[in-house]
Design brief:
This is Aldo/keto reductase. The chain has 311 residues and is an alpha/beta fold. The protein has a single domain, classed as Alpha-Beta Barrel (TIM Barrel). Helices cover 38% and strands 14% of the residues. Strands 3-4-5-6-7-8-9-10 form an 8-stranded parallel sheet. It is globular, with a radius of gyration of 19 Å. The N terminus is likely disordered.
């Protein structure tokens, strides 16, 4: 099943920010005030979340390196300036949590972001200890989103997460993975468990999530975070030296990065994409995918065909 098989009923459930006529009859436009980044509702709560965030795998694992930290400060300042909020990290990502926590405090923006991290271990007590450490590193008294990283010992951790949510230590519960092979497991879990967020890989060439996972997220009111939107950079290698097709300019697409991200954001199940970067100019380019028009389904398929046919 691809995106063209999304039912009319599912489309009509799209998070309340656009009318059915916009979704079904013409390209979906971002709704924003004062030229702010588009936001979509977290389905379990109705809270609005900007549609482009940042991932910290590798890019924020810089430890105490002063030069790298100065550059990442600029990345975070620009992210805030351009309307991004979600910062996704994990204990798996080296020093990333500590770097994010330290830098957001240093630039005075520590309460301006939506913090998402993960539990990445086995066993209840080790999971609790790791999550407490993450709160400390990110300098948070409460985590916005705690996710079970790659479904590791998920049955154990989900009990802790539910308890922590009831106690007010976390706001949302999520599960994650990064491979196509995991999609059926993710789908089965969100069909059976009460989950706020699901995070997984999805890109213009790797569309396995359209075979049922995205539909399940819509049906069960689970917010979607997309990781690996650039396929680890391989999409940029594919288009290196190639000009954008002229017809995408109608959809406020002015770079290949925006091309790849807007393809994903045009799917009604997607709440937020989290490309990783440590470069300020790339961060700004990514954020701009959250503004302007989105392609409709016909144009999405045209975008996919253009990439598919590149040699």
């Amino acid at each position: 099943m691809n995106a063209s098989n999304i039912s009319r009923r599912q489309i009509l459930k799209l998070m309340g920010f656009a009318s059915a006529s916009q979704l079904l009859g013409k390209p979906l436009e971002f709704l924003s005030e004062n030229n702010k980044m588009m936001q979509r509702k977290i389905k379990s709560s109705g809270e609005l979340l900007p549609v482009v965030g940042v991932g910290t795998w590798l890019t924020f694992d810089v430890g105490s390196n002063a030069s790298d930290r100065a550059t990442l400060k600029e990345v975070l300042k620009l992210m805030h300036q351009h309307g991004g909020k979600l910062i996704d990290s994990s204990p798996m990502y080296g020093s990333s949590e500590e770097v994010v926590g330290g830098l957001t405090k240093e630039i005075g923006l520590q309460n301006e972001f939506f913090y998402a991290t993960k539990v990445w271990t086995t066993g209840e007590s080790d999971g609790i200890n790791q999550m407490r450490a993450s709160l400390d590193k990110l300098k948070r008294s409460k985590m916005d989103l705690m996710q079970i990283h790659n479904l590791i010992d998920w049955r154990t951790h989900i009990k802790t997460l539910r308890r922590w949510k009831e106690e007010g230590k976390i706001r949302y519960i999520g599960i994650t993975h990064y491979t196509d092979a995991s999609h059926d497991r993710l789908k089965n879990i969100i069909e059976r468990e009460k989950i706020d967020f699901v995070q997984f890989n999805y890109s213009i060439r790797k569309r396995n999530a359209e075979r049922g996972l995205l539909d399940a997220a819509l049906k069960h009111n689970v917010a979607v975070i997309v990781n690996r939107p650039y396929e680890g950079g391989s999409l940029f290698r594919l288009v290196k030296g190639r000009a954008l097709p002229d017809w995408v300019k109608e959809y406020d697409i002015n770079s290949w990065g925006q091309y790849f991200l807007k393809f994903l954001l045009a799917h009604p199940a997607v709440n937020c994409v989290i490309p990783g970067t440590s470069k300020p100019h790339h961060l700004v380019d990514n954020m701009k995918a959250g503004y302007g028009k989105l392609p409709n389904q016909e144009i999405r398929e045209k975008m996919y065909s253009h990439i598919r046919d590149l040699r």
